[in-house]
């Protein structure tokens, strides 16, 4: 594909007149918005058309496209084959060790049908939950689509999560089946997976079967009668399966994400609205041409970005994608560029943390490869700093392609705020404006919209099709977390700070709650704290996210050790604590630094003042300490750390 023209002036240039004159999507009427989404839904195949676009009468529980019936997997797979595109490549799969697989839409259809037949043979029926913990292999996509085809809500758990984290997710969802693999490749090594998932399922009685993909030929523990090999069960199934249509609001998946407490939330997404918005946003934001583009989203399917922009959105749009199993460093640091060159990737969608890592490695690396196929770049996961934006555009985008900075969340299901290519002048670091059909505002404490040049909280003031339908099994927590703060106005509270610039464009400023963003992954301070205090050496713990030049934020933990635990070598204790957190949650939650302190700064009501700890973690003079119960605590903490008397 030839690069898309970028009509936008360079950073700092005057905004295009047309863009200024266009109405802000948020200013459209509610009726316009519903008509807009109705048109987008028509791009999908519906067995039965909806009678009402939005039923908001039970707010904040939305029902979109009520009365409509569709099959999500049929929309993502079969209809493309039926329309004569069976030979089009759905996935160029690239394994970490260099093995590859080309999967056409006809192949995908066959594999999804077989997998669906296999799940049926295990007695699974619509509504049953299936847990999936797999590396980035094609079977992960087959498994998700087979679940969607049968109306089995899936719960995909990132491969880096610990057995304990997997177990709690299986239990919360009451999953009957777990799909996993013998092992997974991690930076060139085969590491066990099944051995870990066995640890999780030992205490998860809802699991009746474990379906195991052979990936690394690693020895595995085996429970006769419960465990089944994928190649035995799936590969022998018939190639045909007739999809059944489900209600637009049939649950599609549960995806767990960190909140402000120690317990992850099972974010629930349903079928019709979710697929409508993921497909629309993928098409519009990336200006996608299914006949010519080769698209690569580098996320893991264990995260929402993988669900919406590797699986559902792209496949609904008949996209040809790259699916890559490995890490960017294996076997060498040029791996991503090599893959772009090899497949002629035209749309590349990644996270700022990786861009900053590329910057660290240096521009000579991408310069060694032919990246001229790139016509569009995307960014997601955290605010992209202008420096990374410019580097990305210059060294990956040849200084000529548009960059779309996409703001959204696990809860929103699909992109909400992003510059539409060609529609707005480029502003490095700003996600700019809500997409058509979406309405977002920046408001103050009272929920009043702030003026240009002012900051506040980002809210979504109108329902959207891909919005979460709740937290699995916890209606109250759903209302409390997202709708209580601005209940009087009916706004969804996103948990992000934001600012309007002088043109009214939106700049995201990061989380305003106790959720950290480490390499684009959401981790709650409370989750890491509860992992730390579950260790016998720890009396108390407080965790903060400190700015980090590469990962955005880094996890810094302050711990008070129990009497007796201080006898050994401090370095040994903190190393053991880091390992403990990795075991409890997963390696992504390991604190970068653990500081042993004699006290923690607390208010008179006993609340830990993380703001002051952040000052310490970022090597600043501690801010206002007047609300502390004991103001001398900060001196004690800093004295201990710097060795001052
Ligand atoms: C942050 C990932 C600024 C934000 C899709 C949000 C961003 C959280 C951006 C959701 C962006 C994501 N600019 N911040 N373009 N994209 N975020 O649920 O704080 O893993 O609330 O979804 O990531 O993270 P989640």
Radius of gyration: 24 Å
Low-confidence stretches: 1-27
Provide mean pLDDT, rounded.
92
Helix count, DSSP H or I runs of 4 or more residues: 19
Alpha-carbon distance between the termini? 65 Å
* Helix-and-strand structural type: alpha/beta
* Main beta sheet: 7 strands, mixed
How would the global form be characterised?
globular
Which small molecules are bound? 5'-O-[(S)-ethoxy(hydroxy)phosphoryl]adenosine
Strand content: 15-25%
User: Which strand order spans the largest sheet, edge to edge or round the barrel?
Assistant: 5-4-17-16-18-19-20
What key phrases describe this protein's structure?
alpha/beta, 29 strands, 7-stranded mixed beta sheet, disordered N terminus, globular, 645 residues
What layout of secondary structure does this protein have?
Layout (H helix, E strand, L loop, with lengths): L16 H5 L8 H12 L10 E4 L7 E4 L2 E2 L1 H14 L3 E6 L5 E5 H17 L8 E3 L5 H13 L3 E3 L6 H11 L3 E5 L1 E4 L2 E4 L1 H9 L6 E5 L13 E3 H4 L12 E2 L3 E7 L7 E6 L1 H14 L8 E4 L6 H13 L3 E5 L10 H9 L3 E4 L1 H10 L2 H4 L8 E5 L5 H11 L6 E4 L33 E4 L11 E6 L14 H9 L8 E9 L5 E6 L3 E4 L2 E4 H9 L4 E11 L3 E10 L8 H15 L8 E4 L13 H8 L15 H10 L3
Bound molecules: 5'-O-[(S)-ethoxy(hydroxy)phosphoryl]adenosine.
The site of 5'-O-[(S)-ethoxy(hydroxy)phosphoryl]adenosine (WTA) has 22 residues, from α10, β20, β23 and β24.
Protein name: Acetyl-coenzyme A synthetase
Enzyme class: ligase
EC number: 6.2.1.1
Could you give a quick summary of the protein structure above?
The protein is of the alpha/beta class. Strands 5-4-17-16-18-19-20 form a seven-stranded mixed beta sheet, with helices on both faces. A seven-stranded mixed beta sheet has the order 12-11-8-6-7-14-15, with helices on both faces. Strands 21-22-23-24 form a four-stranded antiparallel beta sheet. Helix 17 (570-584) links the parallel strand 28 and strand 29 (593-596).
């Amino acid at each position: 594909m030839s690069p898309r023209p970028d009509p936008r002036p360079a950073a700092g240039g005057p905004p295009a007149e047309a863009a200024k004159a266009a109405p802000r999507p948020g200013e459209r009427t509610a009726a316009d918005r519903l008509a807009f989404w109705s048109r987008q839904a028509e791009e999908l195949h519906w067995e039965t058309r909806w009678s009402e676009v939005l039923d908001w009468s039970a707010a904040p529980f939305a029902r979109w496209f009520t009365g409509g019936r569709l099959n999500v997997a049929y929309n993502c797979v079969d209809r493309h084959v039926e329309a004569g595109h069976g030979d089009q490549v759905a996935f160029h799969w690239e394994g970490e060790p260099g093995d590859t697989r080309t999967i056409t839409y006809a192949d995908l259809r066959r594999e999804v049908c077989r997998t669906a037949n296999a799940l049926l043979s295990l007695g699974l029926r619509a509504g049953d939950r299936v847990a999936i913990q797999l590396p980035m292999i094609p079977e992960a996509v087959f498994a998700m689509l087979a679940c969607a085809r049968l109306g089995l809500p899936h719960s995909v758990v990132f491969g880096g999560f610990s057995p304990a984290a997997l177990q709690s997710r299986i239990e919360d969802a009451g999953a009957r089946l777990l799909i996993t693999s013998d092992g997974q490749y991690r930076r060139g090594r085969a590491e066990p997976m099944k051995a870990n998932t066995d640890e999780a399922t030992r205490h998860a009685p809802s699991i009746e079967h474990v379906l195991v993909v052979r990936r690394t030929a690693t020895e595995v523990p085996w429970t006769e009668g419960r465990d089944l090999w994928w190649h035995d069960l799936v590969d022998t199934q018939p190639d045909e399966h007739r999809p059944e249509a489900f209600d637009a609001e049939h649950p599609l998946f549960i995806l767990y994400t960190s909140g402000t407490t120690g317990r992850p939330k099972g974010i629930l997404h349903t079928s019709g609205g979710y697929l409508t918005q993921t497909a629309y946003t993928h098409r519009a934001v990336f200006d996608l041409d299914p006949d010519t583009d080769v698209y690569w989203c580098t996320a893991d399917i264990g995260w929402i970005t993988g669900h919406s922009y590797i699986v559902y959105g792209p496949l609904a749009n008949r996209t040809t994608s790259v699916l890559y199993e490995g890490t960017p460093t294996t076997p060498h640091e040029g791996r991503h560029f090599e893959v772009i060159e090899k497949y002629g990737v035209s749309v590349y969608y990644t996270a700022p943390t990786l861009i900053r890592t590329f910057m660290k490695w240096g521009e000579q690396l991408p310069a060694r490869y032919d990246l001229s196929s790139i016509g569009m770049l995307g960014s997601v996961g955290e605010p992209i700093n202008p420096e990374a934006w410019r580097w990305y555009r210059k060294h990956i985008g040849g200084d000529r392609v548009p960059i779309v900075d996409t703001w959204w969340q696990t809860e929103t299901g699909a992109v909400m705020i992003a510059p539409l290519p060609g529609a707005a002048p480029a502003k490095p670091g700003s996600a700019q404006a809500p997409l058509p059909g979406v309405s977002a505002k920046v408001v103050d404490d009272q929920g009043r919209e702030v003026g240009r040049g002012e900051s506040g909280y980002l809210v979504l003031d109108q329902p959207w099709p891909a919005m979460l339908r709740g937290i699995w099994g916890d209606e109250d927590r759903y209302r409390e977390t997202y709708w209580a703060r601005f209940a009087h106005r009916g706004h969804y509270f996103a948990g992000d700070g934001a600012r309007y610039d002088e043109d009214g464009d939106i700049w995201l400023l990061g989380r305003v709650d106790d959720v950290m963003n480490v390499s684009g992954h959401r981790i709650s301070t409370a989750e890491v704290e509860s992992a730390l205090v579950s260790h016998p050496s720890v009396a108390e713990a407080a965790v903060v996210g400190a700015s980090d030049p590469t990962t955005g934020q880094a996890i810094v933990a302050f711990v008070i050790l129990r009497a007796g635990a201080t006898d050994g070598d401090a370095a040994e204790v903190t190393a053991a604590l880091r390992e403990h957190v990795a075991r409890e949650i997963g390696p992504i939650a390991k604190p970068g630094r653990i500081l042993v302190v004699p006290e923690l700064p607390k208010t008179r009501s006993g609340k830990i003042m993380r703001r002051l700890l952040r000052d310490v973690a970022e090597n600043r003079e501690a801010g206002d300490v007047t609300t502390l119960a004991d103001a001398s605590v900060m001196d004690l903490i800093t004295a201990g750390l710097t060795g001052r008397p």
